[in-house]
Amino acid sequence: MDQNEWIIEELESVFQNSRDYKQKALIAATQQLIKEQALRVTQMEGELDGTLWSPRNWNE
Q1: Which sequence spans correspond to the domains of the chain?
Q2: What are the backbone angles phi and psi of residue 47, rounded to the nearest 5°?
Q3: DSSP-based three-state secondary structure for 1
Q4: Region at 30 (left for phi over 0; alpha for psi -120 to 50; beta for the rest)
Q5: Considering the entire predicted model, what is its pTM?
Q6: How far apart, in whole angstroms, are the C-alpha atoms of residue 42 and residue 2?
Q7: Please, which of 27, 46, 48, 55 could form a disulfide with 15 given CB 3.0 to 4.6 Å?
Q8: pLDDT tens column, 8-17
Q9: Is the pLDDT of residue 32 over 90?
């Protein structure tokens, strides 16, 4: 389990135990933000890998 999954699971536990609407909204938004950041990191890693292995850049 990576760090993002652990954080999301912990936030889900707090979300389920909370009765405050504002707190639940904040937790849900935080979970979504973590997922979006993880997706962007994965995309940037792929872009970096593609750029490093591009034959166009081998002659420079």
Answers
A1: 21-52
A2: -65, -45
A3: coil
A4: alpha
A5: 0.75
A6: 14
A7: 27
A8: 999 999 999 9
A9: yes
Q: How many CA atoms lie within 13 A of 46 on its CB side?
A: 6
Question: 49 is written with which tokens?
Answer: 């890998």
Residue 1: per-residue pLDDT = 65
42-49: Cβ within 8 A, 24+ apart: none
Q: Residue 60 CB: number of other CB atoms within 10 A?
A: 4
Residue 32: left (phi > 0), alpha (psi -120 to 50), or beta?
alpha
Q: Which tokens go with 23?
A: 């707190």
- Provide DSSP, 7-23: HHHHHHHHHHH---HHH
